[in-house]
Amino acid sequence: MNIRDAFEQFMLDKEVAGLSPRTMQTYRNVIEHLFIDLYFTDKPLNELTVTSVKNYILDLRGRDLSDNTVKSYVRHLRVFLDWLYVHKHIDIDFRRELPKIKGKIVAKKIYEDDEIQLIFASIEGKSPFEWKARTMIALMLDCGLRQSEVCGLMIDDINLDRRYITVRNTKSRTDRLVPFSAQTKRLIMRYIQSRNWDKPYLFVNDGGEQSKARNVRYIVNKYVKGHAGIKRGNSHLFRHTFATRMLMEKEDVYYVQQMLGHHDISVTRVYLHEAQRYRVLGVKYQTISSLIGSVKIA
């Protein structure tokens, strides 16, 4: 069997297993395009050796890629190599034979207290759009939601009485329950009151259709980068801020893992490392709920 036929069987298995289209496309890009098309080509599987894979890793390093990018590409390739071994297409257990690839731990910047206050202060007016902007930002800060998860929220996913949301549109395709503060509840209720549309999705555009990721990016560009002047701002930085601050308060990596919906706890531990940096420096922050509570509702 050649490697292309094996890869298509691998992809079929992953599709049956229910992997997201985004993950499937990543496998296409990283394994099929980078490893097979550009390096291994149509060779039979019996030519797949430890040396050939090591040379591929060296080839990646020679392309002026960052250490973390190389680590990510090799991690995806390992999944395929493990699949080949488990299904007895090859005799080499690459998990044992390949060295671990070291990546650089990059400091994940977060929003400071004054920046969060400035962002909310930059959203002036009482239109449905402006209440939507405030509420979107509050949910990303208070619940650690990704922009796709924010857009996927439906009215029925929100339990206002008990103050939690059911996050369904997740990267791992696993529903999770996330609490929100009383201060965020105030914004959600105010935004719902301001809407002119009786639609199932929480966030809708002027035509009553579900908001998309590009709408979140527009809000960030308009208020965070534009009005507040925070040039490094982006929607995912709200999630970084939530995770880091939560770990500074609770120091419970398993709790925060559940809140973020990480399948692999090692991803959450990156935020723990950053939280420890701030603790060493003696940095003190207001709670996210108190910062959101400063937003005037009337």
Summarize the structure.
The chain is mostly helical and 298 residues long. It has 14 helices and three strands.
Outline, from the CA principal axes?
elongated
The succession of helices and strands, N to C, reads HHHHHHHHEEEHHHHHH
Sheet having the most strands: 3 strands, antiparallel
* Strand residue content: under 5%
The radius of gyration is: 22 Å
Structural classification: mainly alpha
Q: Which parts are unreliable, with pLDDT below 50 for 5 consecutive residues or more? A: none
Alpha carbon gap, first and last residue: 69 Å
Strand order of the largest sheet: 1-2-3
Structure description:
With 298 residues, the chain is mainly alpha-helical. Helix content is 59%, strand content 3%. It has helices spanning 3-17, 21-40, 50-61, 67-86, 94-97, 113-121, 128-143, 147-152, 182-194, 213-227, 235-250, 253-260, 265-281, 288-293, and strands at 158-159, 164-167, 176-179. A 3-stranded antiparallel β-sheet has the order 1-2-3. Strand 2 (164-167) and strand 3 (176-179) form a beta hairpin. Helix 2 (21-40) packs across helix 4 (67-86). The mean pLDDT is 90.
